[in-house]
Amino acid sequence: MDAIGSRLCRSLLAVVLAVAGGIGIAEGAIWGIERWTADERELIASLRLNQLAPLPADPSNRFEQLPAAAELGKRLFNDVRFSRNQAVSCASCHAPDKQFQDGRALGKGVGTGTRRAMPLMGAAHSPWLFWDGRKDSLWSQALGPLEDAVEHGGNRARYAHLLQAHYRAEYEALFGALPDLARVPQDAGPLGDAGERAAWEAMPPAAREQVSRVFAHMGKAIAAYERTLGYGPSRFDRYAQAVVANDAGGQQVLTSQELKGLRLFIGKGQCITCHSGPLLSDQHFHNTGVPPLDRSRPDAGRAAAIAKVQGDEFNCLGSFSDAGPQQCQELRFMVTDDPKLEAAFKTPSLRNVALRPPYMHAGQFTSLDEVVAHYAKSPPAVRGTSELASGGSAHAERKPIRLSVQEIQDLAVFLGALSGPIIESRP
Q: Quick one: which residues bind heme c 1 (predicted)?
């Protein structure tokens, strides 16, 4: 076919597609275009990234929207000096070139943890952080790993001295003058080794409070940076927008197998029950019978985190928070006595999920096929009660999930269409 004939064919196809969209054939079955009911179209439309609400303000961090705070936070995020061995930074487990996680089954800092590192994109939309929700803000979440013995392994006094030595001007421009650290030990903190804890207890209460406030400010700067990280649109978003617009040509962006997977996702597979909304997460905690790494000591998940977040000195109600008590509704009224929280873990976003194996809270599954097969199998939980097992559902409408081998593959393939770029915005 010559060049003129090729252009003519393309022009005719464009006209046909435009006419088909205009008369409603976009809901028919030509060229692989799926028929969707009105309810299905509404579900698909609800998952579009452009339906994501603006980032909610965190009243406990009054610095979160300051560009200077985000700039300082980004530098602290990447600084390996803020660790016991001078080799671990936040970016070690949340690497920008690895979807802001590390690709490991278990996080590895100065030691090895017991759970996976979660990606950071869109985290500012969630009221609870970590797999178990033991932190109630992005800034308090940033502080946890810094003092954790197997993550950064450092201590508050050391971090205050590092800020004074390397970031004094930037810190003081944001938070005011650093306290006098001349009499503060180089290494002291409430969560360190025996010597560090003893040195912390020997400090006057006022000095401990000053160092802890410097530490809190460090977390607030890192949170200001993490708040800028988000997801960009995927092929699924382009397809969903085309469905909404009755754009027949635009609906060609997904393959026939991906479309089968999408139908399973919003229907028979029941994925949308928990993976809902533009971030494809309900931000809640669920026990879905994921096998623990050690069956003799299964992870308690959310149930064990409730006391931690309530007793956290850096929570929304604490003295280092910028919020008033009336602004801490999530913490004040969180569910604390639901037996379904036993061994329950946070629903992760499925955006970019195909780019960050392995999967689940401790990397129990190496592929998306294995993940989907687990839900189809619906095994009983080792600890607590699985929502997927017979009689264990938290959702009265949920029925047993029965998927064929082909359907499992179709669903897994569809999940690959949820991948898009990572966006770093300005605060």
A: 90, 93-94
